[in-house]
Amino acid sequence: MTTTAPAATTAARSRTSRWRVVDIVVAAVLGVATGLLFVVWNGIGYAWFEGLQALTPGFGGLAVGIWLIGGVLGGLIIRKPGAALFVELLAATVSMLLGSQWSIETVYSGIAQGLGAELVFAAMAYRRFGLPTAMLAGVGAAVAAWTLELFLSANLAKGAEFLAIYLGSVVVSGAILAGLVGWLLTRALAATGVLDRFASGRARRR
């Protein structure tokens, strides 16, 4: 018993972390749908970003959260290693292909933001998917985005005050617009029954 029980547990975890065809298909659909959301937000969100920046440099980060939501949705719905990165990266790629004003930099951002969310789900061993985890994943994506922009957008030269305000704004936006909104969207989808083949759907029913 002492030798077979750990082996059975390890095998069970291996099965639950293995991607199925349905996981790949749904992750792809999520990525494309989120990419279309990004395309809309590239106009609306960027206008909001610029307005907040004019108010106080750094406050523009409050508009960033929607661009981080792909990783949160991927992690919450698919619940498999790599899902957060896959969905965020695919969404960023769709956004770029449909004319994002940031061109290839959009993909770089997708990689960083997806990894930021992915690390949070990994830290939870892909076993906790409640609101705190969702908001932390949004924060993880936000910190990753902020870090990348130190170099990609030359923010490193803008001074400590700007960096502190921008970091705080991006973190708040990531927690709310990516984390909270992503969690609410997942619950809403689960309530319709479309996620019944996923643990996220079954957990909602319970």
TrEMBL record:
Keywords: Membrane, Transmembrane, Transmembrane helix. The chain crosses the membrane at residues 21-49, 55-78, 133-157, 163-185. The keyword Transmembrane applies. InterPro entries: ABC_thiamin-permease_prd (IPR017195). The keyword Magnesium does not apply. This is Energy-coupling factor transport system substrate-specific component. It comes from Agrococcus terreus.
